[in-house]
Write a structure and sequence with these properties.
The complex is a heterodimer of chains A (220) and B (53). With 220 residues, chain A is an alpha+beta fold. Chain A has 7 helices and 8 strands; from the N terminus they run E-E-E-E-E-H-E-E-H-H-E-H-H-H-H. In chain A, strand 1 and strand 2 form a beta hairpin. Chain B is 23% helix and 13% strand. The chains are: A alpha+beta (220), B alpha+beta (53).
Chain lengths: 220, 53
């Protein structure tokens, strides 16, 4: 049976990631479950309980995204420091305060301080930087050095805009949740509405999202 | 993460894929070059005749 689509543009919601280095450069990883969001590939949800159609209404499976920023503060206390607006599509369960989706891909990213790399990634990153410096080469994935470098790398690898947002992630999120609601809504709306324009290389669509993102960075 | 109570299930099929297909930001999609209009036989004959004359 073919399902008739209800919506022709992706759902856009907020989520946070931590970062891991598994030899392909920095990758976004779910803070709850060790699932990587691979560069330039859709992330696809799987159900540990064995749901045939994931996500299902009865289960808690799926890729999560929230409508507002307040529910994400707790995840940042656990070491997640990349906030992003993600597209969700395929089968999507709508909740009162967010969504659970079948497929996902980031639309825009904000890199903050306070990132906790898992131990293996930390060793890999440090070794790569040390080795590169020893041989006089550019260190490449030296994302241990700060949000600016990591934002540049993520933008290049995922081909989406990524903005450094100085400050500790948990503090940033708390500030945005308190007073940046309108700016966050504007980013979420523009990230979804301007997707077609950005894919076609429309500079006005890129500029609109960059302006909204900067307003959010300045809001906290 | 608490996202409240489930409301409904949607089937979302974006017209434009959110995943970049190898395109890079700042590099617009390119249209194929416009084919040149073929010269009609009569025009070609006239041109040839002028040259011969």
């Amino acid at each position: 049976m073919t399902l008739v689509p209800d919506v022709a543009s992706p759902v856009a919601g907020w989520r946070v990631w931590t970062v891991a280095d598994r030899g392909r450069g920095p990758e976004l990883v779910s803070p709850v479950r060790p699932m990587s969001w691979i560069h330039r590939e859709p992330a696809t949800a799987t159900c540990l309980e064995g749901c045939a159609a994931c996500p299902s209404v009865e289960c808690r499976c799926g890729l999560y995204a929230t409508a507002g920023l307040a529910p994400l503060v707790l995840a940042c206390r656990r070491g997640a420091a990349v906030l992003g607006c993600t597209a969700l599509w395929g089968r999507v369960v709508e909740h009162t305060d967010g969504w659970r989706g079948e497929h996902g891909y980031p639309l825009v990213l904000f890199v903050m301080s306070g990132l906790l790399l898992d131990p293996v990634s930390r060793i890999r990153s440090t070794r790569r930087v040390t080795s590169a410096v020893r041989h006089g080469l550019p260190s490449g994935h030296d994302h241990v050095t700060g949000p600016e470098t990591l934002a540049r790398e993520l933008a290049r690898l995922y081909a989406v805009p990524a903005h450094p947002a100085p400050g500790l992630a948990a503090d940033r999120l708390r500030g945005w949740a308190r007073s940046g609601g309108q700016a966050a809504d504007a980013v979420r709306s523009e990230a979804a509405d301007g997707l077609a324009g950005r894919r076609l290389g429309d500079p006005a669509a890129h500029a609109r999202l960059a302006r909204r993102a900067q307003e959010l960075v300045d809001a906290a | 993460m608490n996202i409240g109570q489930p409301v409904r299930t949607l089937v979302v099929e974006p017209i434009v894929s959110p995943v970049p297909d190898g395109d890079l930001p700042g590099r617009p999609a390119e249209l194929p070059p416009t084919p040149t209009t073929p010269t009609s036989g009569a025009a070609a004959a006239t041109t040839t005749g002028d040259l011969d004359g």
